[in-house]
């Protein structure tokens, strides 16, 4: 495993660390993917177990997670963006390819990638995930490889001396070279400067009262113009342990510019100093404070969204759930970028990408050890979102996943579960990229495409004058229009690696942290 990637789209430096999701089981001494588990995995309660939750609640979570990828998929076919190859829903209902060819039936309980025309000649592209009942994120048994641009960032990160997070202490993980540093180095080598539209975003740092009464940082990003602007409350990633608002400057800045909105990037207490659920409590406190003070931020809380990456994506949807349940001002949209959504480390993508860079299964185990006082807490519905049955009434969601990421299966499953609950979902999995790619638009083309998709959906939610979201054809780089929020389908990644879409119903910044990009 290697440290996580977070980058910025501009030429200032970001520091801190990686963004990864901390939910999963602390599993076996020797994981299925071959990643070495940390010491906590030797705990008798965790040995030979296959989920992070160790109590009876885990069984309920597993059953619900299976439903999310099987039963919830019954209304959702899977279609590649490039060829429109349909993937058969788990209930065997046929769906059609873009060319109108019906996908073959599949056995109940399995998720099988539909065979293309070559299958008739003897090529079997079906991927059986029996026992996990999850959607395979990479068709076949051979894991996908990073694109040339993505590989350049990963190689540079290693060249800078970054080590796998699971081999480090918390302090070491927080201070070692970050993926953002790698992106900055690549940008310098290639002579890439911050785009003018991003440089034009104004920032100011303020604080809010966290749930424990402490003052935590907020960074306010404001686009050019008079305002008041739509408002996005953004939560950064880092596994609830590492990274900060500096590390994720690129994402917040790009969302502000692309959506024409004020973005407030939220810092929250970190584990292990403040363990679960401190981060969720702070997120709710920040959301309420930001709405109450939106006028002073030149923002309009009547046009409101929540957004987040990885651990922050989990916080974003939980804030929306709390707003619904507490009858607070509800957001108009949710942007969830490779969110932590389950507690099962034996999903298809966990198996295929157990040793992926920058996020691996061993890294996830490390986060779990630091975030939770007891690993059974990962069965909490705030963590195991795919085990919930109460997602109705949430705002439309854009869910973005990376192909080479242990979290992809649960992200796709969350989209299907939301859609089954009547929530409009626009889900896209981008090929050849890893966890943490979203803020890398300066050097990774798929990141720019993902940001464009996200901001187009956000502008539509705000009622802004915007074009339909665009997706790129992975083979031709042509861009085609898709609906901002779709009405049917589930996402996966096809054999050819084309992006696929679900269309459906502080800590203070470290002194060496990079500056705004």
Instruction: Determine the number of helices (DSSP H or I, runs of at least 4 residues).
Output: 12
Low-pLDDT ranges = 1-140, 466-498, 500-517
Which strand order do you get reading across the main beta sheet? Answer: 2-1-13-10-9-8-7-5-6-4-3
- The number of distinct β-strands equals 13
Rg result:
21 Å
Description:
This protein has 517 residues and is an alpha/beta fold. Helix content is 26%, strand content 15%. It is built from twelve helices and 13 strands. It has helices spanning 56-69, 148-159, 170-175, 179-190, 196-199, 249-259, 278-292, 311-325, 348-352, 361-371, 408-420, 445-462, and strands spanning 78-80, 86-87, 202-209, 215-222, 229-235, 262-266, 299-309, 333-337, 397-404, 425-434, 470-472, 479-481, 500-504. An eleven-stranded mixed β-sheet has the order 2-1-13-10-9-8-7-5-6-4-3, sandwiched between helices. A hairpin with a 6-residue loop joins strand 11 and strand 12. The longest helix is centred in the last third of the chain and has 18 residues, at 445-462. The radius of gyration is 21 Å and the shape is globular.
Search tags:
11-stranded mixed beta sheet, two-stranded antiparallel ribbon, alpha/beta, 13 strands, 517 residues
Task: Describe how the helices and strands are arranged.
Elements: H1 56-69, E1 78-80, E2 86-87, H2 148-159, H3 170-175, H4 179-190, H5 196-199, E3 202-209, E4 215-222, E5 229-235, H6 249-259, E6 262-266, H7 278-292, E7 299-309, H8 311-325, E8 333-337, H9 348-352, H10 361-371, E9 397-404, H11 408-420, E10 425-434, H12 445-462, E11 470-472, E12 479-481, E13 500-504
Helix pairs in contact: 1-11, 2-4, 6-12, 7-8
